[in-house]
Amino acid sequence: MLCCCNVLELIGISRCKLLTRLRTSHPRNGIKHLQVSQCPLLQEIELHSGLITLEYEGPLMPLALPSTLRNMSIEFSDISSSLAYVLTELPSTLRHLETLTLRSEELQRATLPNRPLNFLHIRHLRLELNFGFEADILDLAYLLQAAPNMEKLEIHMLMCTMLQRYRKCHGKLRSTPSHPHSHLKLVNITGFYGQKAQLELALHILRNSVMLKAMKIDPKPTIACIGSSIFVKDGRYFLDGYKVAKKYLRKADHHNVVSVKKFRRRDVGNVDPHLINPYWISTLAEDDS
Fold first, then answer.
1. Nearest 10 degrees: CA dihedral of 52, 39, 228, 159?
2. CA distance 188 to 218
């Protein structure tokens, strides 16, 4: 229990093996920023008004969060779909949430609701996702409907390499119903291997974002799950992504907003084989201390 913290504004709790419940008992405490990481026995977080920023890393659990929350960063270790979490578990009380970051594995398809949810205040959405074979990346297009006032979208992917880059022999590209988005201005996509569903999602965003000023495509992933890495042989996937982005996204770009980070054939053998989650680095530092 956090009580009588009228002056304290930031609390960080990491790897506390005895903590089972975290709550604030006084609605007027001064805590504005809470960080919770790797507390294996923690079963519930209940917070009163005043909190502005929450950073959480660990298993999925009930989150009773105040409506004052504006920034939330979540890394779940045990869910199979971040999209399903947004649609079914994200607290409906977060009426003023502006920035949302989700890190997780994306192993299964989410069941999309018939009526779109509305997160009217979200301005910046950042997704860091490790995709499995059964997930459908195109489902993320639903988020454009769910966050109609979003201005910046980041999708950082680590892909299953069992799928090849898109070619016409793989079938016609799918498209979802058009829902023009009038606020999205900046899009950043990394880990673009040129797979069919990746291309379909990027095209959907490009065609429906009427105020888009920049869409940046980087074939190389910039994130990884704990213990994950890329290898020199993965360079060919980056080359595939570069070729697909140039061929299809540039062709569909009628307003000159798409920029693709160059990756050439001679770069295939020069891939940095280490891609480590920054949270893992901090965990290792704690182990050594």
1. -50
2. 8
